[in-house]
Specification:
Layout lengths: L3 H25 L50 H4 L5 H4 L5 H13 L6 E4 L7 H6 L3 E9 L5 E10 L5 H8 L3 E3 L1 E3 L2 E3 L1 E10 L4
Antiparallel strand pairs: 1-4, 2-3, 2-7, 5-6
C-alpha cells in the first residue's frame, strides 16, 4: 500500500507534464495567413436591356346620337265633346226633406228592443277553493246601465258563503250589453240576475 501511492503520484505527474507540453506545442505552431486562398465571391449583376417605350393612342369613344322620340299624334278635340251631355237638373229627384225627416224619426221611435249581451266573462275559480276541493254557487243581481255596462252588482245568495262571492262580482262587473231601447232612447234595465256554478272538473 505504501508503494502504490508514490507510484500513482509519479504517474499522475508524468501525465500532467505531458499534457501541458502538448498544449504548449500546439499553441506555438503558427499559420501564415498569406498562403491562405481567398474565398470566392459571388456577385449578382442585372443586365439592362435596351427597350423603346411604346405609346398607345387612345381614341375617344364615339357618342351615339339619341334617338328622336316620335312626334305626338295630332288629336283634334271638338268643342262639342268637352261640353257635359247630362243635364243634372233633370236627373236630380224631387225629394221633400221635411217629409223624409219626419218619417225617419217616426220609424226610429218605434224600434224598441231589450238589452242584448255582448261580452260575458266567466269567473275564475279561487285557488284556495280549488286546492281544498270546495264547490258551490253564487246568485248575483245587477242593473244594466244606459251605456251597456253593469252597475250595482249584489250577491243575493251563495253556497258556501264567503268563498266564491268576490270572483262572481269581479266577473259580472266586466260584462257588456247593448242597452235596452224604449222609444228610440236607451234606458236602464234593472232586475237582472245570474247564478254562477263553481264546480271542479272531474
Amino acid at each position: 500500500m505504501a508503494v502504490r501511492v508514490p507510484l500513482a503520484m509519479m504517474l499522475a505527474a508524468v501525465i500532467t507534464f505531458g499534457l501541458f507540453w502538448t498544449m504548449q506545442a500546439l499553441v506555438s505552431v503558427g499559420y501564415d495567413l498569406k498562403d491562405a486562398k481567398p474565398s470566392p465571391r459571388v456577385e449578382f449583376v442585372r443586365l439592362k436591356r435596351d427597350s423603346t417605350p411604346q405609346t398607345k393612342k387612345r381614341e375617344p369613344p364615339k357618342r351615339q346620337k339619341p334617338e328622336q322620340a316620335p312626334p305626338p299624334p295630332d288629336i283634334s278635340v271638338s268643342k262639342a265633346s268637352l261640353q257635359p251631355t247630362t243635364d243634372f237638373a233633370a236627373v236630380t229627384p224631387d225629394i221633400d226633406a221635411s217629409a223624409a225627416l219626419d218619417g225617419g224619426l217616426a220609424a226610429g221611435a218605434g224600434s224598441d228592443r231589450d238589452a242584448v249581451p255582448l261580452v260575458r266573462i266567466e269567473p275564475e275559480y279561487p285557488m284556495r277553493a280549488r286546492q281544498r276541493g270546495i264547490e258551490g254557487w253564487v246568485h248575483v243581481q245587477f242593473t244594466i246601465s244606459r251605456s251597456g255596462t253593469v252597475i250595482d252588482p249584489v250577491v243575493a245568495g251563495a253556497q258556501p258563503p264567503g268563498v266564491f262571492e268576490e270572483a262572481a262580482i269581479t266577473a259580472v262587473s266586466r260584462w257588456k250589453y247593448n242597452p235596452k231601447i224604449v222609444n228610440g232612447i236607451p234606458v236602464e234595465r234593472p232586475g237582472q240576475q245570474i247564478v254562477f256554478p263553481f264546480e271542479m272538473e272531474n
